[in-house]
From TrEMBL:
Pfam family, one: adh_short
Domain Ketoreductase: 16-159
The entry's keywords: Oxidoreductase
Protein name in UniProt: SDR family NAD(P)-dependent oxidoreductase
Annotated NCBIfam families: PRK06197.1
Keyword Lipoprotein: no
InterPro entries listed in its UniProt record: KR_dom, NAD(P)-bd_dom_sf, SDR_fam
Family label: Belongs to the short-chain dehydrogenases/reductases (SDR) family.
Coiled-coil annotated spans: none
UniProt keyword Oxidoreductase present: yes
Taxonomic lineage from the root: Bacteria, Bacillati, Actinomycetota, Actinomycetes, Kitasatosporales
Amino acid sequence: MSAAWNATRIPDQHGRTAIVTGANSGIGYVTARELARAGARVVFACRSEARGSAAVEQAQKEVPGAEAEFAPLDLGDLASVREFAEAWRGRTLDLLVNNAGVMALPRTHTTDGFETQFGVNHLAHFALTGLLLPSLLAAPAPRVVTVSSAMHALANIDIGDLNSEKKYSKWIAYGRSKTANLLFTHELARRATGAGTALVAAAAHPGYAATSLQTRGARMEGRKGAERIFELANRIIAQPAEDGALPTLRAATAPDVRPDDFYGPRVLMTRGAPAKSWRAPWTLDDTAGERLWAASEQLTGVTYGSVLKG
């Protein structure tokens, strides 16, 4: 029986270039650092220049000689997404890790007026992937990994109410955004394979990993008690970010990953070595994937062109 998959099993990444969104902390930081350790040139795509640059500096301390750089990217603003992609024009991209996300926030909106969880977690990454598609397809073995969550099981998307305008529940909205991540992966994999491209679209989730994601919503609402409970749970129950990043790293680098694979911790979807994960059946619905894709193109103004037509 083979040993459990861990970061030492990441294949050599020399000669490959990766972008990791939200790489300044948590599983995003670990993902970016370990890709750099394996030899990849890694772009830490983050909203905050101070935090992003500090993360690059820390990674270079932990991995001497790491090829790492910061690039500004605000997923709450599609203009920022377009600027980031425009700066990348003409360059090849081997790996895009759509990692950044927000969870269980009080009702807020992105710069473009989208409900924040749907806008940041799904729409911005849909737009980013589409705008970077020419750079990805120029690579010999391109891969897109989108980070979802076991909490996608909370809710299917409501195609008629993608921005939760009828009724807002922060946890249902989060579940819908994570379902959207998986439907996007499903449809991207279907289109990329159907078009005969080498692009592999896969997904991952970290299980219950200790990051700042859990406490942000409570902090925004001023609920100090809830914030302390989340902090305590992170210390006692959650696995460390080092382990939470492993499903992403496996999906991003393992040679046996196939289109539309979904990786997560093997023990009750919460902790342990990464393995193929259960997913709700609605995340494998071709019709839902097509409808979400069409709506996402309309909302963001980003189309994937003739190469990946449905």
